[in-house]
Every structure is written in structure tokens, then in C-alpha cells.
Automatic annotation (TrEMBL):
Record family assignment: Belongs to the short-chain dehydrogenases/reductases (SDR) family.
Origin species: Paenibacillus phytohabitans
Pfam families in the cross-refs: adh_short
InterPro entries in the cross-refs: NAD(P)-bd_dom_sf, SDR_fam
Lineage: Bacteria, Bacillati, Bacillota, Bacilli, Bacillales
Name of protein: SDR family oxidoreductase
Keywords, alphabetical: Oxidoreductase
SUPFAM superfamilies reported in the protein's UniProt record: NAD(P)-binding Rossmann-fold domains (SSF51735)
Length: 269
């Protein structure tokens, strides 16, 4: 949580699912929501990281966290993970569909079908499955907030050469979020999508560079630094502040919004 934001308890009695909670943006959002009173279900592929976070949060507030080892692109495991969350905490109020990978980066003709399908399946199908299995439980509550992590790539920035699978999924998430916002408005379920620029996380570990990528790069020179406001990448906690705002009733009239959080990075590209 940003030190300059007063401690609030906006999520007392609420339950949140956070995908990709083991690292980076998801981890920061889980910590912030738990500090503000939420029960948090920590969904991630890498169970060691979420187990450690589970222990840390349960020390902060007894039984507020539950780590679930799940691949968001696996329909059977996702359905089970959402069911376990609701059984454990007794309901669902907030969904942060955030898990994602950079995936294969390279010239289109050099990418294999499985490269393409892997990125689509984690970033786009994973988002679909997260919403699909959560929505019935939010409807049961008669209210809810969903936040999806997209990116400036594929939306306002197209100069990341070789990142066509990633950028395509990030554009798809924005369309999906807006469709969902309209479909779910009458159920008082809000859906918003955030588009971060560079944030210091472990995301680079999920990048698979094709050696031919250099052949398609058009050199671009940034005037001074790529993120003018921060003079460098943002922090996961900066994004967590935005996620918590969108998850809370402070944003009660905001749905279908696409919010850029990039320290002006995309204004340069
Ligand atoms: P990160 O790698 O630090 O965290 C992502 C987490 O998602 C990891 O713990 C990983 O294990 C998990 N994950 C990956 N695939 C999964 C799957 N199939 N099922 C369950 N969990 C899975 O990266 P991050 O930067 O925190 O990424 C979070 C989101 O932010 C991603 O959707 C990413 O595309 C987006 N994003 C990141 C940046 C950035 O610069 N870091 C910029 C724009 C958008």
C-alpha cells in the first residue's frame, strides 16, 4: 500500500479472487486488499510463492488468505478453484483477473502455432474462465466488482516489435471487459480494465524471445526516459492502489472503463 494513502478498511467482510497472486501486481493487490479487511483467494501456477504469501497474510489477519494452485487456462481446475473459494469464505465479491505471461516474442512467420496458442490460452482464455466461473457467485451477492489487467501494449502502444501474440490478447481483454460490463450492469456487477505500462515485476521471466526478433525492430528513440512521470517503471503497489479503488465502493459509478496507468509512457510511443 502506498505510504501516503490513509489506512482504510474498505473490504471488511468481502472476499476477493486474485489470479497471478504469487508475484508482482497480483501479489501487491492481494496484500493491499487483505490489509483493508478482505478475505483473499490467491490463485497462481507457482504454489510456493502463494503459500508463502498465504502464511504472511494469515499472520496479519487470522484465516484471511487461501492459496490455490491453479492454471487459469484450465477450465476444470478453475471451476474447482472458484468453488473452493466460495465454500471456504462463504461468497464472492471481487475478482481481479490478472494472471498473464509475455509469452513468445518474434516475427510472425517464425512463431509456432503452439507459441501463439499458449499466450492466447493464458492471457485471454484464462480471463474468460476466471469471469465465467465467478459471475454466478457475484450474481448471488447481487453486486460485485471485476478488474482485468490488460496493458498499454495492443491498446495505445504498438511499437513492441515481435509482441503480436501478447498485444493481441491485451486488446482482446479490453473488448471482453467492455462487453462484460454492459452484460453485467443490470446485475450491479461492475467490470473495469486497467492498462499498465512498464511495472517492476517478474514478468520478464515469462518471455520467450525468438532470436530473429531483431530483424523486425524499427529503432525508436525516446526523448528522455520511457516513463516521464516516474523516471522509470512503476511499482506494483501503484497498480494495487488503482485496483483497490476499482474494487471498492468508491468507484460505484465506474464500469466499462479502460484506465491507463503508465506514468505517461504511452504518450511517447
Ligand atoms: P509477474 O510475472 O510478476 O506475475 C504474474 C503471475 O501470474 C505469476 O505469479 C505467474 O506465476 C502467474 N501466472 C502466469 N500464468 C498463469 C496461469 N496460467 N495460471 C495462474 N497463474 C499464472 O507479472 P506481473 O507484471 O505482475 O503481471 C500481471 C499482469 O500484468 C499480467 O497480465 C501482465 O500481462 C500485466 N502487465 C504487466 C506489465 C509489467 O510491466 N509488469 C505491464 C502491463 C501489463
Amino acid at each position: 500500500m502506498s505510504p501516503n494513502i490513509a489506512k482504510k478498511q474498505r473490504f471488511l467482510g468481502k472476499t476477493a479472487i486474485i489470479t497471478g497472486a504469487g508475484s508482482g501486481i497480483g501479489r501487491a493487490a492481494a496484500i493491499q486488499m487483505a490489509r483493508e479487511g478482505a478475505n483473499v483467494a490467491l490463485f497462481d501456477l507457482v504454489n510456493e510463492r502463494t503459500s508463502i504469501l498465504e502464511q504472511k497474510l494469515n499472520k496479519l489477519r487470522k484465516d484471511c488468505a487461501l492459496a490455490i494452485d491453479v492454471d487459469t487456462s484450465d477450465a476444470v481446475r478453475m471451476e474447482e478453484a472458484v468453488r473452493r473459494t466460495v465454500e471456504h469464505f462463504g461468497g464472492l465479491d471481487i475478482v481481479f483477473a490478472n494472471a498473464g505471461i509475455n509469452g513468445a516474442v518474434g516475427p510472425i512467420e517464425e512463431l509456432s502455432l503452439s507459441d501463439w496458442e499458449k499466450t492466447i490460452s493464458v492471457n485471454l482464455t484464462g480471463t474468460f474462465l476466471t469471469l465465467k466461473y465467478s459471475i454466478p457467485h457475484l450474481k448471488e451477492k447481487g453486486k460485485g466488482s471485476i478488474i482485468i489487467t490488460s496493458s498499454i501494449n495492443g491498446n495505445s502502444r504498438f511499437a513492441s516489435f515481435g509482441w503480436s501474440p501478447y498485444s493481441t490478447t491485451k486488446a482482446g481483454q479490453v473488448a471482453f471487459a467492455k462487453m462484460a460490463a454492459l452484460e453485467l450492469a443490470k446485475f450491479k456487477i461492475r467490470v473495469n480494465v486497467i492498462c499498465p505500462g512498464a511495472i517492476s515485476t517478474n514478468i520478464d521471466e515469462s518471455t520467450e524471445f525468438n532470436e530473429d526478433v531483431e530483424s523486425i525492430v524499427i529503432p525508436i528513440e525516446f526523448p528522455e526516459g520511457a516513463q516521464p512521470l516516474a523516471d522509470g517503471p512503476g511499482k506494483p503497489e501503484n497498480v494495487a492502489d488503482l485496483v483497490a479503488f476499482l474494487a471498492s465502493d468508491e468507484s460505484i459509478h465506474i464500469t466499462g472503463a479502460q484506465i491507463v496507468i503508465d506514468g505517461a509512457e504511452s504518450l511517447l510511443s
